[in-house]
Amino acid sequence: PSEEEVLKDAWLCESTLWCHWTHVGTAEAVTPCKVVVISADRFVENVQAHGQIKILAAEYGRQYHRRIISARPPYASWPSDLR
What we know:
Layout: H1 40-48, H2 51-70
């Protein structure tokens, strides 16, 4: 098993908002931290309720997904819950 430090103010598992995602491994806090849980369904409802935000979020999601599916060796590292 490998370990990777998650730095302060970093996102963990953002991919779940933009594509179908399967988590592999575990995350463990070694110091006190705060976790924010976002309901994907509520996120979508709120984004869709605001026209300009919906347009920006849709484009961001398309670009994020494009980068995820193209990330593979030897051109890039495999995607992870941290990147």
